[in-house]
Amino acid sequence: MKHFRIGVVLVFSMACGRALAQEGISITHLPYIQGLTDTSVHIVWTTNKPSTGWVELAPDDSTHFYYKERPKYFDSKYGFKMVGTVHTVELRDLKPNTVYRYRVYSQEVLKHEGVQVEYGRVAATGVYRQQPLRFKTTGGSGNVSFAVINDIHGRNEVMNKLLDLADLPKTDFVVFNGDMADNLLSEEQMFSAFMDTAIKRFASEKPMYYARGNHETRGPFAVKYPQYFPTPTGELYYQLNLGKTNILVLDCGEDKPDSDIEYSGIVDMDHYRTRQAEWLKKAVETPEFKNASYKIVICHMPPFGGWHGEEDIFNKFVPILNKAGVQVMISGHFHRQVIRNADDKIRFPVVVNSNNNLIKADLTEAGGLIRIIDQAGKTVEKINLQSLR
């Protein structure tokens, strides 16, 4: 009987092994738009098996996607097609204010020995019985409409309610202003905490920009975060030129001293913010910023509150922003609403959004309006901005 049981276990193990080996390649998380500009975009998706990846691009005209062979743009670096399960394709030299259709592909790499590569099957997004995915580059009229949510901490039900209130069809983009998850433990945990919801609701076709919060710096998967959220600068701080609006997206780093026991000696945030301040000095001197009608800062942690990270932001970022004529900073972090008016120390208002409300900003040539909206759809606060041009 003992030998029979061992035999059964061996047969079962072999069957499981064959089943795993025969599992086909699939797209595990559908593509989403990152780092969108007037002329470029990053498209990111994941697969269950190591593979190459590419995007096929088509104009948004009356032709079917299968009308002719579409140009291919590969996930490549240093002249190599990258092999992995996270795929990022950067499309460049696009036309401003233009709609494109796209489809993503991944082909499994079964074996690479010497100079020989053995390929498996291909997985792709559908275009046969459904419309291909679309995105539109920036660079349109001077009007900009965007929504901001923050401190979701994996509460997908709250995120869905707030996105319902954002009027997504009339919103140009969505900003995740930090702490969308409690921490980052794995790819699956990150996607289930908020990204799967974002992709389902809008992110495959409408851009999502991310300002990293202090909780996205925590956990063993945190160091891989930048791979999933590429930006126009290649850093986690960057500048958005959107018609007549210029937005500086800053990375707040952590809120406690680098030596705090909670970080186990793994962070170097003070030096990181110093380097970021050097970039910020140059960003506010660009013609796009100087000539903007609206000058807005997105930063998860506000430059006040008394904790080390907040004070470091105040000391390193605020003097630069004060001189640059910033009109407003949009923050989160406190899990409650705080409106700090401009004063001698911080010469621009700081709007701290709660973890249960939505910020909706509408900027036109006539003027700008920032509304804070609760989950009942009620506007609980308004901040008016004057066009600078």
What features would you describe in this structure?
This protein has 2 domains: 27-136, Immunoglobulins (Immunoglobulin-like), CATH 2.60.40; 144-385, Metallo-dependent phosphatases (Purple Acid Phosphatase, chain A, domain 2), CATH 3.60.21. It is α+β, with helices and mostly antiparallel strands and 389 residues long. It is globular. Helix content is 22%, strand content 33%. Mean pLDDT is 94; it is low at 4-20.
Q: Uncertain regions: pLDDT < 50 for 5+ in a row?
A: 4-20
Strand/helix succession: HEEEEEEEEEEHEHEHEEHHEHHEEEEEE
CATH fold name of the largest domain: Purple Acid Phosphatase, chain A, domain 2
The first-to-last residue Cα distance is 87 Å
Compute the number of helices: 8
Oligomeric form: single chain
Overall strand count: 21
Q: What percentage of the residues does DSSP assign to strands (E)?
A: 25-35%
Structural class: alpha+beta
CATH-defined architecture of the largest domain: 4-Layer Sandwich
Question: Measured on Cα atoms, how large is the radius of gyration?
Answer: 23 Å
How many domains? The number is 2
Reported for the largest beta sheet, the result is:
7 strands, antiparallel
The CATH homologous superfamily name of the largest domain equals Metallo-dependent phosphatases
Average residue-wise pLDDT: 94
Helix content: 10-25%
| C-alpha geometry | globular
What is the CATH domain class of the largest domain? Alpha Beta
